[in-house]
Amino acid sequence: MGSPSTRPREKALRAEAIKAGPGQAGKGRRGVAVLGSTGSIGRSTLDVLRRHQEHFKLVALTAGRNRDEFAAQVEEWRPTYAGLAGPVDDGRWPSGPEVLVEAATHPDADIVVNAVVGSAGLDATLAALRAGKRVALANKETLVMAGALVAQAACAGGGEIVPIDSEHSAILQCVTGRDGGLARLILTASGGPFREWEAARVRNATVEEALQHPTWRMGHKITVDCATLANKALELIEAHHLFGLPYDALEVVVHPQSIVHAFAEFHDGSVLAQLGFPSMELPILYALTHPDRLPDSGIRRFDPVAAGPLTFEPVRTDVFPALAFGLAAGRAGGTAPAVFNAANEVAVAAFLQGAIPFGRISETIERALDAHTPVSASSVEAVRAADRWAREAAQQSVRS
Ligand code: NDP
Fold it and tell me: For the segment 159-175, what is each residue's pLDDT rounded down to a tens digit?
């Protein structure tokens, strides 16, 4: 067997649909749809777009339930399409889950920023790829649930995925323009708020404590995922699908400063890394412009002295078992990752509602995975069935 290479998978997920990058923006502004515009990534995306209106035109917006903020965004941007995915509204905008696909396939959208949280983003990702769009993907749950289906949709429709997750953006920036030879990826993790806590204290951590992320300000679900390290498992599975490396070639290291976003090792032993002060605006901008870059005065310039010492340490896998459960689900393949994701979503929601202690999140995931026999995830129906089954299993576990 030869060394792993990014080429086949890159071809699958990154088809040739987008011929004219924003670097040639003189040829016209690129249409952007933002799904999840009222969230952390959605708002950061609008901040980026506000600075680059000569290159991009916002054509579609969707949010979930936050009508007031959404109304203000619609008022400011006046997109061609606006829809609320949450419960039926007062008639101002189309509403219901189907608005995500309507926005994602809008004819004026060249790029779809999927910043929805959780499995709700899957249909929009698939539809956008089938329609030949670039999907700037923050919604990692999509790739975790249905990586093979996402790759198929990209091939069938000529769309492409460009990751927004900072670690995957870092890797993409390291491999872009290189002809294969990628051997190993090391994703960095801040370690979350409980990095140095004793195991017993972690198990009983409160919601308030779990939401105190040391380096990033994000939505509640991903912030809790960072505290359990389930987020890093989701990211390993995401990296496996995006860059085509086996799980044995994917690693995680704790890096509390969140300055180095990932390391990419090539088969000659050379290692490249991408660095920057923690900000999602840079990976968002890169996902819009890849493989080109736009000058952006809104991004804090890097200063190695201000960044201070950069430290690295191993993950305490015994204290944060969700990482190993997710990795095992990734290795098992088929419907196991969808079960991992759904059980995690249910457990995190229950924790945030005060229904279970922090330590029960990983136990809920473990129970669901133990009770599941993975089958092929070759159809949306199979993935949805596994998702439903896992939600029910996790709900029972949470109630017991
Ligand atoms: P938020 O919770 O801040 O925002 C989520 C967005 O999705 C909101 O606009 C929300 O609408 C909308 N939404 C929620 N549920 C639904 C639904 N069922 N259908 C349609 N829309 C819905 O999340 P983040 O921005 O933090 O994260 C979004 C995604 O990006 C996640 O997958 C996360 O893992 C990923 N990510 C986030 C990072 C970050 O820095 N935040 C970094 C890397 C990845 P409303 O608020 O109106 O209800």
Answer: 999 999 999 999 999 99
